[in-house]
Amino acid sequence: MPHFNAQRGKWMAQVVISGVKHRSQHDSKAEAKQWEAEKKKELGSQQEFSAIRTVSLLEWATMYLDHAKTKFVTKTYKEKRFVFRQLFNAFPSDMDVFFLHKGQVLAHFREQSLRRSGYAANKDRKNLVAAWNWGIQYLPGFPSENPFLTERFAENRTLRQVPTEKDFWAVYEVAESEQDRLMLLCYLHLAARRNEIFHLLREDVDFDRSRVRLATRKRKDGSQQYDWLPLTDRLHKALSEHLAATPGPWVFPDPRSGLPYVYRQKWLDRLCRKAEVEPFGLHGIRHLSASMLISAKVSLLDVQTILRHTNLTTTQRYVHRLESVRKAIEVFE
């Protein structure tokens, strides 16, 4: 079935015979359909060929997003869905996947880099490369050459702000409630990711064994993984008192809804301004935790266990080696 290519302003016709693709472009849908019919007649009987349209961009995207919805967390799924929306602003959704070329894709990424940023374009590229590779693996007859494997774009990324211990405690002191202060303490003492504390359940805290269970989906296959970490004495006492006064299954419910937080984007910014310190985020506290462990001479393997990294290389990226570098440059004195 012919489809219209908006970029070329043409109707695209295609016939596949014995695995060989025959393509043509026309000014009208009728001409394209006529060409397909004549080509089929020319090249053999109806039994010798399969007429064409393989998979459209929309069909490919829909099937991949259905897969992604069950495999990845909601945030990742929404990110991938947004990437496809940007793609369909540039290409017709009914376009056959065989008609997508690297040059067209590169132009789309270039526009994204100018309109949004090089980092955003590269992130779109990463998601679409993965989606196309999924199609190669699971969709029969899907094109094996990935058109999204284009060159990358320059990124102007700022370094993540890692607070000093002094700045962290300054923010801790100005937090509005005991629950907020305890939440900050959990991020520091457990080197936790944002959602690991947002979604912490009462049943995840084992006071008898003085430990807490953290759940993460930050794994390659998107699976949920649980890890137990020991509680510090201070955290054990604070959590025990907090849960005694907090009803419901969640350790840190949003007071407005009783449900776990989803986003607290402005909360920490507000506290940083109030404490008059350089703004930092929740993930910056995780980096601070790693730095404090290294400064205390904790082994890299133990730091890896606390941060719950599957790869030691990832842990090494968290380690801020200013002290060792400072000693190294003493040779210049």
Automatic annotation (TrEMBL):
User: Which organism does this sequence originate in?
Assistant: Candidatus Electronema aureum
Any one Gene Ontology molecular-function term assigned to this protein's record: DNA binding
* Pfam families named in the record: Phage_integrase
Q: What is this protein called?
A: Site-specific recombinase XerD
Which GO terms fall under biological process for this protein? DNA integration; DNA recombination
Origin organism lineage: Bacteria, Pseudomonadati, Thermodesulfobacteriota, Desulfobulbia, Desulfobulbales
Q: Which residues form the Tyr recombinase domain?
A: 158-333
Keyword entries, A-Z: DNA recombination
